[in-house]
Structure formats: structure tokens, C-alpha cells
Known about the structure:
The chain has helices spanning 4-39, 53-58, 73-91; strands at 47-48, 51-52. The protein has 92 residues and is mainly alpha-helical. It has one domain (3-91). The chain is elongated. This is V-type proton ATPase subunit C. InterPro entries: ATPase_V1-cplx_csu (IPR004907), Vac_ATP_synth_c_sf (IPR036132). GO terms for molecular function: proton-transporting ATPase activity, rotational mechanism. Keywords: Hydrogen ion transport, Ion transport, Transport.
Amino acid sequence: PGTLDSLLALSDDLVKSNIFIEGVSHKIRRLIEGLERARGVEPGTLTVDGVPVDSYLTRFVWDEGKYPVNAPLKETVATIQSQVAKIEDDMK
């Protein structure tokens, strides 16, 4: 169980994580929009797992299989950051 001090410390980390993850999300959106323009594809035609890209990026659904709600918050944040960093590296 987390203490108030650990939650306050994590709060600062969450702000940084949020900024990083939002930045990567915007990069992905710009990349996809650029691909659509370059290929002359109608905006919103490209999909991720059968879902239009815009919906995929903006409609969040928590995946309890990947991120159990009973896992320590710090561990969950670290896992998400790691996965987003990998996505960012893959885009380069």
C-alpha cells in the first residue's frame, strides 16, 4: 500500500509522464495525417485494430489485462512510459 508521501512523489512523476505521453500521441497523429495526405487517402480512412485512428487515439479504454488495477501505481506508470518510449523509438 502506498503512503501519502509516496503518492505525492508519484504525483510529480505523473505530470512529467503525461507531458511525454501527450507529446508522443501528437507526433503519432501528425505522422498519420501526413501519411494520409501523401497517399491521397480520405482522412479517417486509416485504422488501428479496425478502429479509426482518431477514435483510437482519443477514446481511452483501460486494459486490465495489461495493466492490472491492483498493481502498484508506480509500476503501472513505468510500464506505460516504457511502452510509449518504445513506440516513439519505432517511429524514428
